[in-house]
Amino acid sequence: MAEAITLEVTRYHPERDEEPSLQSDEVPLRKEWVVLDALNYVKDKVDGTLSFRWSCRMGICGSCGMMVNGAPKLTCATFLSDYAPGPVRIAPLDNFPVIRDLVVDISDFLIKLSRAKPWLIRKREKPLSEGEYLQTADELDTYKQFSMCINCMLCYAACPVYGLDPLFSGPAAIALAQRYNLDSRDEGSNQRLDILSHSDGIWGCTFVGECTEVCPKNVDPAGAIQQYKLTATKEWMKSFLMPWGGGE
Amino acid sequence: MSSSIQHPPRSYRRRVSTYWWLGRWPYLKFILRELSSISVTWFVVQTLLQISALSRGPTQYMEFEAWLRRPIVLSLNAVSFFFIVFHAVTWFNLAPKAMAIRVGGKRVPSLLIAAPNYLAWLVASVAVAWIVLRG
Questions:
Q1: Contact (CB<8Å) B105/A138
Q2: Cβ–Cβ under 8 Å, residues A99 and B11
Q3: Which among A70, A97, A208 is the nearest to B11, CB-wise?
Q4: Which of residues A53, A76, A104 is at a domain's end?
């Protein structure tokens, strides 16, 4: 091995361990290797029992999010050489229960995501014979940034509000709700209002802003939440000033 | 005999440390921004005390001014001023995130949202300086 770097990987076996521990392994330090390559090296050559999630290796599937030296990263997009001479400490995503080694339980995120109704809602679906719902390039541009979310949950790992209050809906779920609210083809913003404009929704956010900083797809969840705070306030004002029904 | 395996398996939840905000600079910056509200409160209280002293007559106001010149009060005000500036700068820099203004189908650049805030701050500061320093 020409050059090596030490990985300090969190290990946790739910049926054996009371709490996680660190395992150190030497891996080759190759210029073209990302952290995920190093983990696959450990699994293939050193210790086959190491568990971690990964799939596409190109920043699309959102599976390989982990804490690398304390910061949430997609391990497929984080170069090993950036951490030379090491050691590189790899841990499961913060703020989620750990199932085993580097694998976290994502059930809570999935529940919150479905509550935000991240799909097109129509009052009346038009028949296929009437064709597709058309949209201009400018209309697409209003929500495109938020639609880039790959559900990697790095934003949840970076959010201290979610860490301290697991009831908080969290950055990605709110950003994706806002993605559909801003879509010209969607008519479901009223259905999302009650869920989003809740103390566990947008008002739980204290604007730390780290969700946006760690997002590998530049989605800006912090921006989505603050923008929705303005929308929710306007809706509240409307319902206050026009209680007979100023909205839809 | 096979050992009984729990389903779903036991998971481990790490507790968030009370000092989580010391771990990374962005978190510390956030907490400092939140704490700056104490400085705002301090200046409001001080202004109310000043108005109260003013209404009680020249002697009381002179006493109040003497109190303001005490090293401890001067130090406190210097620290508070730093926090007020820190709060204003960080808040103005965050303003473009909350305001997604679109003109002609394109989003207005962040700089154009933040700049009017800084300009208004500058104009207000110059106006206050002029009122205070002209006599």
A1: yes
A2: yes
A3: A97
A4: A104
Residues in A touching B5 (Cβ below 8 Å): 15
Q: Which residue of B has its CA nearest to A136?
A: B105
B34 to chain A nearest CA, in Å? 9
Owning domain of residue A56 = 4-104
pLDDT surpassing 70 at residue B23 = yes
- Nearby residues of A155 by Cβ (< 8 Å), 6 or more positions away: A72, A170, A171, A172, A175, A210, A211, A212, A214, A215, A219, A221
**Shared-domain flag, residues A9 and A74:** yes
pLDDT in tens, A222-236: 999 998 888 888 888
- Sorted by where each begins, the domain ranges of chain B are 16-81
Question: In terms of CATH architecture, what is B16-81?
Answer: Up-down Bundle (1.20)
Q: Span A181-187, mean pLDDT?
A: 94
Nearest CA in chain A to B34: A206
Looking at residue A38, which CATH number applies to its domain?
A: 3.10.20.30
Token pair 């002029």 is found at: B130
Q: Which residues of A touch B105 (CB under 8 A)?
A: 138, 141
The answer to whether residue B109 scores a pLDDT higher than 80 is yes
Write out pLDDT tens, residues A31-65: 999 999 999 999 999 999 999 999 999 999 999 99
CATH code of the domain covering residue A217: 1.10.1060.10
Q: What is the pTM of this model?
A: 0.87
Cβ contact, residue pair B27, A160, below 8 Å: yes
